[in-house]
From TrEMBL, chain A:
Protein name: Porin
Origin species: Pseudoalteromonas denitrificans DSM 6059
Superkingdom to which the source organism belongs: Bacteria
Signal peptide range: 1-24
Keywords (A to Z) from UniProt: Signal
From TrEMBL, chain B:
Keywords carried by this UniProt record: Signal
Lineage: superkingdom: Bacteria
Signal peptide: 1-29
Gene3D superfamilies in the record: Periplasmic binding protein-like II
Name of the protein in its database record: PBP superfamily domain-containing protein
Length: 382, 146
């Protein structure tokens, strides 16, 4: 009995110690966007000549969020809760629980990573995060963070946007300029990839699933900011593999290749104006010599809480090792809109998008089709 | 049905935009930037801005800087952001949201009154904040006024 009491008290003491240690300081914040929109007309279906269909704007390629003639808030409406648990001793864990209209609002942990503050300058992160591809990629879903309804979707079109891996981030100052250099390494095994499944069906496929693998993602991201500008340079490379699983379970394996991604972009504040830009080049070492040069230029006029803007983004697709080098995918997106910050933590936006298809129709590369789209939304943070 | 819904949403948005345009700015009060009385640092406007944007993490003497914001919606926050950072409070919040939700920074802590700002700063050596000039007491040191 005495022994029991002793062990019981030992258990109580140890459990109270454990709970004292485990009981982390949890900070909850979040963001979201309630957006609705529709396309305004019909178009000759580029993949089915002679047939008309609704104009379609793919507002979110990764989640296949598309507008057609029906006014809908499913393609882009989303809500995210961020939990940051500070465990002390320089260690934190972060999770983002995200519910999207494209997934019928079923919540999923899209981000989860550990952060270790090794020194005042060096931060180590391990877990699931967004790949810092384009300038706006890491926060592409935080609508409150940028002027437009969305970063131009004809550039943010990749079937992989996240990875599991390590990021080492180093902060330093050069004169009056703040620098953050990140090195990142990781993999993404995207089984049953939503965007690739969509393309398979679009071209008449009946695959049960398309599995997309981006492995040995290795890169550097350098951010430089001063009083009136913030620019960043990115380079990464990775291996690409794709397995298409037919209904009978047979697997078609795509010839693997590796890709490189190069980007330079940022924001510059000039008096009442903000200029946002991004220039990117994706290259494959495949048999075609595939290249995707893309760029974005946008101008915002800031007058107190009102921010009217223009944005032009262009995407091209070339095959440098083929006889025909340039007649593949090509399009641009011209967007006009206004953001009004009606509340310290919320803004309302109204945007019109003109998507112009310039792809080669005869070979099936003009698969988006022209579209005119109007969307209205509220972005918020808390 | 669908079209009507669409029109209603649009007119609501336009109404909100017009209402906002008619709102006028209230007269501004002088803002005092304050630190702990033991803090001997001298900071110019750019240094204060960099501390509040998370770009400068230490005072010149090596002490870790703990910036304190007035709560969202407080007049002093809007005045400070306009005068020192040169942006609206919404623009500053937008800047922070991209850092907070990518794990690259934590927004300054928020305090809900000038009195709370004074008591927090007088008991934390590295703290820096701002209040209405008329609220200043001996418990804190004023390093700049805007």
């Amino acid at each position: 009995m005495k022994y029991f009491k002793q062990s019981l008290s030992a258990l109580l003491v140890s459990s109270s110690l454990i709970s004292g240690y485990v009981c982390a300081d949890i900070n909850i914040s979040g963001f979201g966007s309630i957006v609705a929109g529709k396309t305004l007309g019909t178009v000759d279906d580029p993949l089915n000549p002679g047939q008309k269909r609704d104009e379609i704007l793919t507002a979110d390629f990764y989640d296949v969020g598309q507008y057609n003639n029906d006014f809908s808030f499913k393609p882009e409406t989303m809500f995210a809760l961020q939990f940051v648990a500070d465990m002390g001793e320089k260690l934190k864990v972060t999770g983002q629980l995200v519910a999207k209209g494209t997934d019928d609002f079923s919540p999923e942990f899209d981000w989860y990573y550990l952060t270790y503050q090794a020194t005042d300058e060096l931060t180590l992160m391990a877990g699931r995060r967004n790949i810092p591809m384009y300038y706006f990629s890491e926060f592409s879903e935080v609508g409150y963070a940028y002027p437009w309804m969305r970063p131009p979707s004809n550039l943010y079109w990749w079937q992989v946007t996240q990875f599991n891996g390590l990021t080492a981030m180093y902060d330093f100052t050069l004169g009056d300029y703040s620098n953050t250099v990140s090195f990142f390494y990781g993999n993404e095994y995207s089984n049953d990839n939503k965007e690739m499944n969509y393309y398979d069906k679009l071209y008449g496929g009946t695959a049960r699933a398309v599995n997309e693998f981006w492995t040995d993602i290795l890169g550097i991201n350098w951010n430089l900011s001063g009083d009136f500008f913030d620019v960043r340079f990115v380079y990464f490379q990775n291996d690409r593999d794709r397995d298409t699983i037919a209904q009978d379970g047979s697997v078609t394996v795509m010839t693997p290749f590796s890709q490189t991604f190069l980007g330079f972009g940022g924001t510059v504040d000039l008096a009442q104006f903000t200029i946002l830009f991004d220039m990117n080049m994706v290259e494959y070492d495949d048999a075609h010599g595939t290249e995707y040069p893309t760029y974005l230029i946008s101008l915002v006029y800031n007058m107190d809480e009102f921010h009217p803007y223009l944005s032009y983004s262009k995407a091209d697709h070339k095959r440098s090792k083929r006889v025909v080098k340039d007649d593949y995918e090509e399009h641009y997106l011209m967007s006009y809109g206004i953001r009004y910050d009606f509340h310290p933590s919320a803004s309302i936006k109204l945007q019109y998008d003109k998507f112009v298809e310039q792809g080669h129709e005869a070979t099936g590369w003009a698969y988006h089709g022209d579209s005119d789209t109007i969307s209205i939304g509220v972005d918020f943070i808390f | 049905m669908c079209k009507q819904h669409h029109k209603k949403q649009l007119s609501l948005a336009i109404g909100a935009l017009l209402a906002g345009m008619l709102t006028t700015y209230s007269a501004s009060a002088e803002i005092a930037v304050i630190v702990n009385t033991a803090n001997s640092s001298t900071l110019d406007k750019t240094a204060i801005e960099r501390i509040f944007m998370g770009k400068m993490k230490k005072f010149p003497n090596g002490q870790v800087a703990l910036p304190m914001n007035a709560a969202k919606g407080m007049g002093s926050r809007d005045e400070f952001n306009k005068a020192v950072i040169g942006r609206s409070s919404s623009q500053v919040n937008a800047y922070w949201s991209k850092l907070v939700f990518t794990g690259k920074g934590s927004m300054p802590k928020e305090l809900s009154s000038d009195a709370e700002m004074i008591s927090t700063i007088s008991s934390n050596q590295g703290a820096i904040g701002y209040i209405n000039s008329s609220s200043v007491t001996d418990a804190v040191k004023v390093i700049a006024k805007f």
